[in-house]
Specification:
Helix content: 25-40%
Radius of gyration: 45 Å
CATH superfamily of the largest domain: Efflux pump adaptor protein, beta barrel domain
Strand content: 35-45%
CATH architecture of the largest domain: Beta Barrel
CATH topology of the largest domain: Elongation Factor Tu (Ef-tu), domain 3
Structural class: alpha+beta
CATH class of the largest domain: Mainly Beta
Order of helices and strands: HEEEEEHHEEEEHEEEEEEEEEEEEH
Number of helices: 5
Distance between the termini: 69 Å
Largest sheet: 6 strands, mixed
Number of domains: 4
Oligomer: single chain
Length: about 400
């Protein structure tokens, strides 16, 4: 069927009108995405709120034995035995070294004989003094003879006391030939072997014993941080948690967390002039001997509770070109603002933000790659998983 050429303009106008009408209908049928208007990208937000979080500081430190004893001989002689095992555990009072006791046993026996002789002399002197004391009453002996008998008796008493002291010293020296562990703990490398000559109170220790359960961890905190925290306490920005014992968690050199937890023992009362820091000591149980003296560790301790901080999910926080922590905030006009914040630390699945955000603000947690500062957005509810990360 052919159309009359005279009617072609009218047909063309009708076709164009229909096309424009269809286009208009298609545009009107497009759903409005939300308050951001048509075409605005959708973002999921997390609404911030004021929170109270524990104030946890992480400090470097080194482990140290709770007790340490450098064992030295108290008498001279030849080492006969060394029954303990180097690097092993020893108990308090356990025999470590046996020094040849022969000469000290002989000295002890001689002192015992000297005491017996002194006691015999004392017996004879006492009888004479008692007899002369009676005879002088009837003038059977002179007063001078009686005085001499009484003086001899007292001298004999002094000789007995001196002999007892000599015997006690000989007994102590003989006991010192057994070098025992003064404390329980782990024995180190032995400085001598059987057959070696040792001297009383020598400079070199025979062995060093260290008690490692419990074990100390000496931490250092700068005096500036300590002063800042004290001012926060006074201003009410930070309050104490009310605990008598401050719990401490330990991070090992490989980043793993040590179990079980310890507690803060004391803090130094003076500042180290060389480093400008204060030493804090924590005590940890060490039943398995995992912690060894001299290990470098990091400790986390709770020093109080901080008020009015904001927590945001990990997914909401990014970094700008300068390395500053930033978040994208949706304002009252449903437009995006870039905000520089101060993220102090991570707490669970969220960042602790102390500056830059106020409670009640909406932080973008999903759709960050589709937005830019100043652009309008369409706000949708954040999935539970996004708000938690």
């Amino acid at each position: 069927m052919q159309i009359d050429r005279s009617r072609r303009p009218a047909v063309l106008v009708m076709a164009l009108t229909a096309a424009f009408a269809l286009a208009a209908c298609g545009k009107d049928s497009t759903p409005q995405g939300g308050m951001g208007g048509a075409g605005a990208p959708q973002v999921a937000v997390y609404q911030t709120q004021a929170d109270v979080v524990p104030l946890v500081v992480e400090l470097p430190g080194r482990t140290a034995p709770s007790l340490i004893a450098e064992v030295r001989p108290q008498v001279s002689g030849i080492v006969k035995q060394r029954p303990f095992r180097e690097g092993g555990e020893v108990k308090a009072g356990e025999l470590l070294y046996q020094i040849d006791p022969a000469t000290y046993q002989a000295a002890h026996d001689s002192a015992a004989a000297g005491l017996a002789r002194a006691e015999a002399n004392l017996y004879a002197a006492r009888l004479k003094a008692e007899r002369f004391a009676g005879l002088v009453q009837i003038e059977a002996v002179s007063k001078q003879a009686n005085d001499e008998a009484q003086a001899a008796y007292k001298l004999a008493e002094a000789e007995v006391a001196a002999a007892r002291a000599a015997l006690e010293k000989a007994r102590v020296d003989l006991a010192f030939t057994r070098v025992s562990a003064p404390i329980g703990g782990r024995a180190g490398r032995s400085g001598v072997t059987p057959g070696a000559l040792v001297t009383a109170n020598q400079g070199e220790a025979l062995v060093t014993i260290q008690q490692l359960d419990p074990i100390y961890v000496d931490l250092t905190q700068s005096s500036a941080d300590l002063l800042r925290m004290r001012r926060d306490f006074e201003a009410g920005r930070v309050r104490r948690n009310g605990q008598d014992a401050v719990p401490v968690r330990l991070l090992m050199e490989d980043g793993s967390e040590y179990e079980p937890a310890g507690e803060l023992a004391f803090s130094e009362v003076s500042v180290d002039e060389g480093t400008g820091s204060v030493t804090l000591r924590a005590v940890f149980p060490n039943p398995k001997g995992e912690l060894l003296p001299g290990m470098y560790v990091r400790a986390r301790l709770e020093q109080g509770v901080k008020n009015d901080v904001v927590l945001v999910p990990h997914a909401a926080l990014g970094r700008d070109a300068r390395g500053n922590a930033t978040v994208m905030v949706v304002n009252g006009e449903d437009k995006v603002e870039a905000r520089v914040v101060r993220a102090e630390r991570s707490l669970g699945d969220k960042w602790v933000v102390s500056e830059g955000l106020a409670p009640g603000e909406r932080v973008v947690v999903e759709g960050l790659q589709r937005v830019r500062p100043g652009a309008p957005v369409t706000v949708v509810a954040a999935p539970a998983a996004a708000a938690a990360n």
